[in-house]
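Suppose you are handed only two things: the residues of a chain and a line of SMILES describing flavin-adenine dinucleotide. What would the bound structure be? This form records exactly that question and the answer produced for it, so the two can be stored side by side and reused later without any lookup.

QUESTION INPUTS
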Amino acid sequence: MTSYTAPTKDMQFVLHEVLNVTQSGVPGYDDLEPDFTQAVLEEAGKISSELLEPLNRVGDTEGCKLENGVVRTPTGFKAAFDQMREGGWTALDCDPAYGGQGMPYVLNTAVGEIFVSANMAFNMYQGLTHGAYSAIHAHGTDAQKALFLPKMVSCEWSGTMNLTEPHCGTDLGLLRTKAEPQPDGTYKITGQKIFISAGDQDLTDNVIHLVLARITGAPAGIKGISLFIVPKIALNDDGSLGAPNGVSVGMLEEKMGIHGNATCVMNFDGAAGTLLGQENKGMRAMFTMMNEARLWVGLQGYAEAEAAYQNAVIYARERLQGRAVTGAQNPDGPADPLIVHPDIRRSLMDQKSFVEGARALVLWGASLIDRGHLMGDKDAEGLISLITPVIKGFLTDRGFDMTVQAQQVFGGHGYIEETGMSQFVRDARITMIYEGANGVQALDLVGRKLAQDGGKHVLAFFEMVKDFIKDNKENAALATDFLDPLKAASKDLQAAGMYFMQNGMTNPDAALSGSYDFMHLFGHTVLGLMWTHMAKAAQAALDAGSEDADFYEAKLTTGRYYMARQLPMTATHLARIQSGADPVMALPADWF
Ligand SMILES: Cc1cc2nc3c(=O)[nH]c(=O)nc-3n(C[C@H](O)[C@H](O)[C@H](O)COP(=O)(O)OP(=O)(O)OC[C@H]3O[C@@H](n4cnc5c(N)ncnc54)[C@H](O)[C@@H]3O)c2cc1C
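ANSWER OUTPUT
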């Protein structure tokens, strides 16, 4: 059996000692006093350990069932969902005009990590609703907002995103779902969507589907796609529930993990929908939901790794196997615990240093989103746009790897379902695929984001790293262990960017053969930056005579590990990038 304890202390450290939220000048952040965030995180942690985590296994073993056209979620999900709604957890950062609590996104993100670690499949019902809420909030008319948002904020109604069709996943320009204009200004939506997360369930009274479709006569390809709001149950003029709306679940997918979340084939048979945003500008509106979802999926990647890591540590302390090479550590016992062995330590340090760095990155990313939304800070918007594919792709790749490492600590017992370690691996695997498979995130990074606004944002990132190194060069605690490796990684990243600039136009294959490595090179560099910031904060606390010296010493030690053992990967990624297209593309396709 697994267990989970929310890492509230580490979250508090990032919020208050690294990001210094209350002093950052972002509107609403002055409410985030340490006592307040501590109380919120602790309460979220309590619900997670007592309510959500025990249901994680239930969701995995029972899965969802389709009965008479209605999806039944696993035992206990409905009661837990009601408890979450009634506790206001679904409305934390939503607009008070629609019943939300108006908290900053950064706090919602920290709380979200706790809920995802405890039960990712369960959290997805709420997560997708939040994404649909954001899209309607950003692009809806006043009437649409008034009609849908209050019930979505309270999660009385849930939300979904419907992009994928059987013949079109990454290449959405191929999509065929039709939208026929009606005299009353609505549209009849007809088509089939597949793999729709939380497509139906028995947790809410209605499901509000956001559906990409092509209006009759619209241009072919991506330029002819519009976005529609299509409720499962039609609404009467006064907003009350009316008749079923031609939306049905064709089947539930059998899948590798996240069994507690219903992945549905959705059939739309002339279902009534209203346009969200402008005609043929559906991708723009959908991107509001997708960008939020990409950050959230990156969060899922490391949140699963955190939960798996916690269990690996417990096991490594308890399981007795072999003796320490330097002499028995448990001489009265038959053997020493696994944690004495250097290779087990290596694995635990990989996991710990990744998860803590990833947490800092995602909370920093969430604070950039707040700056964009609440202050109109265009530089922050540019930066988060640049690093979103890195957060999604790198954190989910590494997050999955870390769940495998945690499973490995259990040896054969990790492969046996009883310990629950296999579920972390199976659940984490989807994060590398949905919301744009990671290869496509790398394409987005190299093909679009690097050159966005004339390369302004990537140059600003390089400047930010350079300035930080310069400003801290007198800090002896950082110089050798942190600043030097960060400088080397940043140089590798710049050299890779230069390689793409020099070769990408003449030979696009050269850029795209290196795109995946570039995403990882960037990921390591930005995690190196996070670790250097955290080391600075930890050293400052130690210098100030903190009573919690163990926590800060552990921070510095873990940071040194990342800089010494993970950051050198940037050189390998650069070498692979600079080898160009030939090694990748030389073999003719029919020789495979
Ligand atoms: C459990 C689950 C839940 C999901 N939830 C949702 C949901 O809620 N809503 C929704 O709309 N969809 C959902 N999806 C669909 C998911 O987003 C897609 O599966 C994903 O975007 C990839 O599309 P595809 O499966 O068609 O793969 P394809 O597009 O066929 O891609 C196959 C592989 O080729 C790569 N590839 C594709 N094009 C290129 C290219 N130009 N260059 C290089 N590589 C390329 C991809 O990276 C991928 O590895 C879900 C899927 C699953 C399995």
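WHAT STANDS OUT: The mean pLDDT is 97. The radius of gyration is 24 Å.
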